[in-house]
Design a protein that fits this description.
Length: about 110
């Protein structure tokens, strides 16, 4: 029988879904459609002043509800949105996930 725990007794987890949020859109389908149609997610920075910056363009995600509420709100929404897509894609029930879910975002 296969061992389903690591050396510390924790359950081994397999990632079976992926979630994506980029400046091109939400989800793999939106991102793939934008990429294959040649759309760019790079545009002028509007979230903060750029007067003393060398760069005035970026791939900002500025279309989510929390995009104008500060970085910690946006970071959480980005992670949660991607995680929901990943869990849904895995075939698991997102309302009854059955364990903790760790979200990390740079």
């Amino acid at each position: 029988m296969a061992n389903l725990n690591d050396h510390m007794g924790r359950p081994i987890v397999a990632v079976t879904g992926i979630g994506v949020v980029t400046s091109l859109g939400v989800g793999k389908a939106d991102n793939w459609a934008a990429l294959t149609s040649g759309k760019s997610g790079i545009h002028p920075i509007t979230r903060f002043p750029v007067d003393h910056l060398n760069t005035r363009i970026s791939g900002m995600v500025d279309f989510l509800p929390s995009s104008s509420k500060g970085s910690s709100h946006l970071t959480y929404e980005l992670a949660e949105t991607a995680a929901r897509e990943a869990v849904a894609e895995s075939g698991l029930d997102s309302d009854d996930f059955g364990g903790p879910l760790f979200l990390a975002s740079p």
